[in-house]
TrEMBL record:
Protein known as: NmrA-like family protein
Tagged with keyword Nucleotide-binding: no
GO terms, molecular function: oxidoreductase activity
Stretches assigned to the NmrA-like domain: 4-274
tRNA-binding listed as a keyword: no
Stretch forming the signal peptide: none
Organism of derivation: Penicillium canariense
InterPro entries: NAD(P)-bd_dom_sf, NmrA-like, NmrA/Isoflavone_reductase-like
SUPFAM superfamilies in UniProt: NAD(P)-binding Rossmann-fold domains
Keywords tagged on the record: NADP, Oxidoreductase
C-alpha cells in the first residue's frame, strides 16, 4: 500500500480536528502547517509540525517540498490566507490541493456572500496556476443543522421553520465523523489521478423537512412548533443582511436553497460513498439521541438565532 504524503493547514477547528485525527489514524504520513498564533502542543506523538506565515512564500514553499497533497481545513476567517498556498504550490512537487469548502456549491445569490465568494476565488486562483484540486461538498453538517436552530431546526425546543417548500424538499446532511472518514478514505492512499479536478459530494442522510418534523414529534412525544417563511421573506432577509454586511446572510441563504429544493443538486452528482461505513439515520440522530453536540456558540449568537423563529 502506498500512502500519499499529506500536509494539513488548519487542524484545530470543530470539523478540522476530526478530519485531522482520521487522516493520522489512516497511517498516511501527515504533517501540520500552522500559523504563529496557533497551538500545536497537543499534536499526536510523531506528527511533525511547521510554523509558517502564509505571506512568506519562500517559507511556504520550503514546508511543502516533501508533500503530495495539501489539505486546507481553515474556517471562515482563514479562507483568504489560502492564497499563500496557491502561490507557493507551483514551486513544489505538490500534486493536489484540497481547499477548504465543506459546504455546497453556491448559485449567484450565494456568491454575493463574502465567505462563499472567497472560497471560489481560491479555487479559481489555483486553476489559473494549473494546480489540480479536489473540492469536498458535504452539504450541511448534521450537528449544526439539528442542534443550533441556524437553518430552522431546533431539537431541544422541538420546533422547526419551513422555508419555502422545505417541508417537502430534501436537505443533505453529514455528521462530522462521516466527513472525517471520507477524507481519510479519499486522500490517504487513493491515487491522485483518481481525485484531481473533481468536486466530490458526500451524502450521509437526505430527508425532507416533513421527515425531520416527524422525528422531532417522535422524540418529544409532541408535535413540534412549526413556523413558515415564504421564499420571498427569506430572500428579503438575505438581501437585508448582505446590505448590512452581517454573517447571518449565510444562514438565511442555507434556508433559501433548502426551501427551493436546490441542496441535493448543489453537492453535485459525483457522490463518494465511504466503504464499510455505517451511516447514521435521521431516527438515530434525533429520536435515539446519538447526535454529537455542535461547538459552543455565544449567548448573543444564540439569542440572534432564537429570533429567527417566528
Amino acid at each position: 500500500m502506498t500512502y500519499n504524503r499529506i500536509a494539513v493547514y488548519g487542524h484545530r477547528g470543530w470539523v478540522s480536528s476530526a478530519v485531522f485525527a482520521a487522516l493520522v489514524k489512516s497511517g498516511a504520513p501527515v504533517k501540520v502547517l500552522y500559523r504563529p498564533s496557533s497551538d500545536v502542543s497537543d499534536l499526536p506523538k510523531g506528527v511533525p509540525s511547521i510554523e509558517v506565515d502564509m505571506d512568506d512564500q519562500e517559507a511556504v514553499e520550503a514546508a511543502l517540498q516533501d508533500v503530495d497533497i495539501v489539505i486546507s481545513l481553515v474556517g471562515q476567517e482563514g479562507i483568504t490566507r489560502q492564497h499563500g498556498l496557491v502561490n507557493a504550490i507551483p514551486q513544489t512537487n505538490v500534486k493536489l490541493f484540497v481547499p477548504s469548502d465543506l459546504a455546497f456549491r453556491c448559485d449567484e445569490q450565494g456568491l454575493q456572500i463574502a465567505v462563499n465568494r472567497g472560497k471560489i476565488e481560491v479555487e479559481e486562483a489555483a486553476k489559473r496556476k494549473g494546480i489540480p484540486t479536489t473540492i469536498v461538498l458535504p452539504g450541511l453538517f448534521a450537528e449544526s443543522f439539528l442542534c443550533t436552530g441556524m437553518v430552522g431546526v431546533d431539537i431541544a425546543k422541538n420546533r422547526i421553520v419551513f422555508s419555502g417548500d422545505s417541508e417537502h424538499q430534501l436537505v443533505n446532511i453529514c455528521t462530522r465523523e462521516y466527513v472525517a472518514a471520507a477524507y481519510a478514505a479519499l486522500f490517504a492512499t487513493r491515487p491522485i489521478s483518481e481525485l484531481e479536478n473533481r468536486a466530490i459530494g458526500l451524502s450521509e442522510i437526505q430527508a425532507t423537512g416533513g421527515e425531520v418534523a416527524k422525528a422531532l414529534e417522535k422524540r418529544h412525544n409532541a408535535s413540534p412548533t412549526i413556523f413558515r417563511h415564504s421564499l420571498e421573506e427569506v430572500d428579503r432577509q438575505v438581501e437585508y443582511h448582505l446590505q448590512k454586511g452581517l454573517s447571518l446572510a449565510n444562514l438565511w441563504y442555507c434556508r433559501r436553497v433548502w426551501g427551493a429544493g436546490k441542496l441535493p443538486e448543489l453537492i453535485g452528482s459525483d457522490i463518494w460513498e465511504v466503504e464499510d461505513y455505517k451511516k447514521m439515520t435521521l431516527e438515530e440522530l434525533i429520536v435515539d439521541g446519538k447526535l454529537v453536540g455542535y461547538r459552543e456558540v455565544s449567548p448573543e449568537f444564540e439569542a440572534i438565532v432564537d429570533g429567527m423563529f417566528y
